[in-house]
Structure formats: C-alpha cells, structure tokens
Amino acid sequence: MIDRRMFLTGLAALSACGDGRSSQTHQKRMAITIDDFNVGFDIGLSQKDRHENILRAFDAVGHKAAGFVTGSFVNSAWGQEVVLEWLARGHVIANHTWTHAHANKTDKATYLADIRKNQNYLNTLPGTSTYFRFPFLDDGRDRAQQLAFFAGLKSFGLRNAPVTMDSVDWYTTSRLEAALKANPNTNLAPYRDYYVEMCLTLSNHWDDVAQTLGFTSLPHLTLMHHNVLNGHFLEDVLLALRADGWKFVDAAEALAFSDYHPIPHEPTSGRNWLTLKSLEMETEIQPYPEQYIEFGSKRMDALVL
Ligand SMILES: [Zn+2]
Questions:
Q1: What's the mean pLDDT in 148-175?
Q2: pLDDT tens digits, residue range 77-114?
Q3: Which residues pair with 159 in a beta bridge?
Q4: Do 300 and 185 form a contact (C-beta atoms < 8 A)?
Q5: Which residues have CB under 8 Å from 248's CB, separation 6+?
Q6: Rounded to the nearest 10 degrees, what angle do helices 47-60 and 77-88 cross at?
Q7: What is the whole-number distance in angstroms between the Cα of residue 249 and the centre of ligand 1?
Q8: Which residues are close to ligand 1, an ion, with C-beta < 5 A?
C-alpha cells in the first residue's frame, strides 16, 4: 500500500524534472528480447517461416535483439540452426536455463545445475553472451533463496537480465494458436491489430512509469517469445513502434545499463523491473491499462479473438 505522503513524494520528484519528461522531448528507447525458443512446432506457420519472419522483422528496423534460450527447447538440428543464425546475424544469445523450471519450486543445487548445464551448451557456440534471465521472472521463493541464486549467477560469470515491458505475447499467441487449430483459415488481421495496439499501449504505459521514476530515456527491455504470434506480426509491431517514436537500441547496449544489475530488494515474483523499482522508491505509478488486466483475456473475449 502506498500512502498519500509517498504519493506526494513521487509527484514532487516528477515536477522537479519539469518539461524534460514530456513525451515530446525525450527519446523513447527499447530493445526486444525473445525468450524460450520453443521452435519445434508449427501451427498455421512453418517453423522455418516463423524463424525467418522474426529475423526479417529485426532487419526491417535495423535492430540487434537478444534471445534468451532454453537449451532443451533447441536440442535438435533445427534448434541449432535457429540459434546459430541469430548469432551469425549479430543478435545476442544468452541463458534461460536448460529446462525452464520455476526457481521457487526447485532446490538451489538443482536449479543452479540447470543454469550451468545451459551455459555449458551455450559455451559451445560462437559469440554467446553472459546474461541470464529467470524463467517466469521467478528468482526464488524468499530472500535467502534469491540471494543464493544471484550468488550462483555471479560464480558462473552471469548477469541478470530484467524486463521492463512484458508484451504478454505468451497469452495472446495461445489464443491465436487455438483459433488456428480450430480453423486454419482464421482471419489473422484482427489478431494483428489487437497485438500491435497492445504493444503500443503497454510500451507507452511502462515508459510513462519510467519517466515518473526519473529514468528519462530508459533503454527498455521488452519481453516477447519465439512463437507463432511473433512469426506473423513482429514486423508489424516493430514498424508501428517506430512510427510511434520508439528507437530500437541494440540489446547488448540496453542489457549493459548499470541500473539493471543490483540484486532486487526482494524476490521478483514475476514483476518487472519498473514495478520493483517503484516499490523500492516508494513512488506511486500509473495503474496498469485496464484493458490488458488478466493478460487481455476479457478484451480478447469481447473482440471474439
Ligand atoms: Zn521463458
């Protein structure tokens, strides 16, 4: 609960920065991060087309993105081909555990071994990175477990990669994939329009939050996944973001932003970095856009998607 005093403190911080925070005068910046790489299935789009479309989308806006790879999902000739092509085309490839386990449900030794196994795999590939992202943004069930995991990451030479904007694409693609399974001729345009609008709204929401917290040109880390939805529409989303004034900053640069690297004050529990930061700073932030509460399920129901 944030009381009125804390809220006013937030407002004072806001006004202290004056007009520099208005959307007209600051550069909105983000890097796209793609998690999981569950590349071994196709629904309405071949695995090859999905892969190529996603890379083509980055090329369309000249962006070098980051892929957080779960090794067991790419443990095939095709998976290797996908990851190697990301590397060859200059994108960051980093660690997302071998099995995509929940940290809070896994004992410390097992979880750290899973990270280590994935890093051993990544180390066999040329030019992989030393970042790590916790699956489900779950970095442990309590402070002691969280600190043990961060100590383990440090001992492996890895750094945590937080998220500032969650596109909720994992839910949106589940609805699209269900529709395509039921009817391969599903009209895709309404899904595209919904996803593009959602990404614009959520990106601008979280950038407004960043402004409130005093991060005037934050290099956002946007969370997406290697899925059918992005195979179809990632390029539409990126072009719409660019038209809306967003600049794509190389993921390697965004990930290195120093404020991202201190250990969070408490277990992340699926929350993004800006939400954690607002709690640390005791600063009231704008409410999450109502139409996307519950992953947008009610809005998608209303739109019959
Ligand atoms: Zn994941």
A1: 98
A2: 999 999 999 999 999 999 999 999 999 999 999 999 99
A3: 131
A4: no
A5: 29, 30, 31, 32, 61, 62, 63, 238, 241, 242
A6: 10
A7: 22
A8: 35-36, 135
pTM of the model: 0.91
Q: What is the 3-state secondary structure (H, E, C) of 134-203?
A: CHHHCCCCCHHHHHHHHHHHHHCCCEECCCCEECCHHHHHHHHHHHHHHCCCCCCHHHHHHHHHHHHHHH
Structural domains in the chain (count): 1
Q: What is the pLDDT of residue 16?
A: 41
Count of residues in the chain: 305
Report how far ligand 1's centroid is from the alpha carbon of 100 (Å): 6
Write out the residue range of the structural domain in which residue 241 sits.
26-302
Residues 128, 94 contacting (CB under 8 angstroms): yes
How much distance in Å is there from the Cα of 6 to the middle of ligand 1? 34
The CA 126 to ligand 1 mean position distance, Å, reads 22
CATH number of the domain bearing residue 214 = 3.20.20.370
